[in-house]
Design goal:
With about 350 residues, the chain is mainly α. It contains 17 helices and no strands. The protein folds into two domains: about 150 residues, Orthogonal Bundle (Tetracycline Repressor, domain 2), CATH 1.10.357; about 130 residues, Four Helix Bundle (Hemerythrin (Met), subunit A) (Up-down Bundle). Helix 3 runs parallel beside helix 10, helix 7 packs antiparallel against helix 8 and helix 14 runs antiparallel to helix 15.
Length: about 350
């Protein structure tokens, strides 16, 4: 059927009506979509001032490596008990621990500042505050220097000059001798760099007596020889990290059997140093039993690890972290016994 010009046909009229309905429905749909169907969303409450302060402080606390410092403090308090032959002045303990924390925290912060390039390459350290940007390198540098200076002033004013001098020496040994000179140049870095970690016993002893005795020196040697068999298993587990970062830790550059032999040597010297304290007369039955028992137990762990390396075992079968955690248990048992012994020995 042909439409008459100027007069729309019935089909055309129906088509236009359908188009108009479609346009009307489309507009309605768009309009309804633009209008929120539910109640207006309530903005989240602003964090409290206390939470904001904590958020700022948290990465700075992380810079001090608090978990490592816990281990250092475990060695300081028992040494003070032994030096005093009992319970030292509580305020002296508090001032020494605070000063020691500040010194170790300053050294650890400066270590992170200097190592921020290799920390970014290692899975174990990639979440440290400077790497993630939570703390700027400049702020970390200022923070580390400030803690170091305050620690020396604190110990010098509230403890004694000897302890302050030893704390400054510990900071310089860790930051300059270990971090800046040894760490990236020699596989024996942790051996000599570990000297800084031995200083808390000297600081604790000098805080009580104002001097450093042979007993304190032997405690120093216990931690000095303990450090390699403590740290090398950890370096073994993260050897790929260290290799990627270009840090020549011994497990990266030497065979597992070679590392194990050196661990046995250091463990033997560690046990010998712990037993050499007994004849000096400052310790009694509690320390003697603990030194013999824990030394034999940790010696067994290291010997078993060496045997596994000779068999060519790797991964979970080698399980270096058993030795790592065992080393922490050994040192804790030894120094807890050192703290208890004066009360029994009297």
């Amino acid at each position: 059927m042909t439409a008459t010009p100027g007069v729309p046909s019935q089909g055309t009229d129906q088509h236009e009506q359908r188009a108009q309905r479609h346009d009307h429905e489309g507009v309605g749909t768009e309009s309804s979509a633009a209008v929120p169907s539910g109640p207006a969303s309530t903005p989240a409450p602003a964090p409290s001032p206390w939470r904001r302060v904590l958020a700022v402080l948290k990465p700075y606390v992380a810079l001090t490596k608090p978990r490592i410092i816990e281990l250092l403090l475990i060695t300081t308090i028992p040494t003070m008990f032994l030096a005093a032959g009992g319970f030292p002045n509580p305020w002296l303990i508090a001032w020494t621990l605070i000063g020691g924390y500040l010194a170790a925290g300053g050294a650890n912060t400066l270590n992170m500042y200097l190592d921020r390039d290799i920390d970014a390459k290692m899975k174990r350290t990639k979440n440290r505050p400077i790497v993630t940007g939570e703390v700027s390198p400049r702020a970390a540098l200022v923070f580390g220097i400030a803690l170091s200076v305050v620690s020396a002033l604190w110990l010098g004013a509230l403890v004694n000059v000897m302890s302050a001098v030893l704390a400054v020496a510990a900071i310089l040994l860790y930051v300059v001798f270990y971090t800046m000179i040894l760490k990236r140049r020699t596989s024996q870095n942790i051996v000599w760099g570990g000297v800084a970690g031995c200083m808390p016993v000297l600081i604790g002893w000098s805080a009580v007596t104002g001097t450093v005795s042979w007993t304190a020196v032997l405690l120093f040697l216990v931690i000095f020889f303990w450090t390699p068999p403590h740290y090398w298993p950890l370096a073994e587990k993260f050897s790929r990290d260290y290799e990627t970062a270009g840090v020549p830790m011994l497990p990266v550059v030497a065979s597992r059997s070679s590392v194990a032999r050196q661990m046995i040597l250091h463990t033997t010297l560690m046990i010998a140093s712990s037993l050499a304290i007994i004849p000096l007369g400052h310790t009694g039955i509690v320390y003697t039993v603990a030194a013999l028992g824990s030394g034999a137990w940790f010696g067994f762990l290291v010997g078993r690890y060496a045997l596994r390396t000779r068999k060519g075992l790797t991964g979970k079968k080698l399980d270096p972290m058993v030795v790592f955690h065992g080393s922490i248990t050994y040192l804790t048992v030894l120094f807890v016994a050192l703290a208890v012994d004066p009360f029994v020995h009297l």
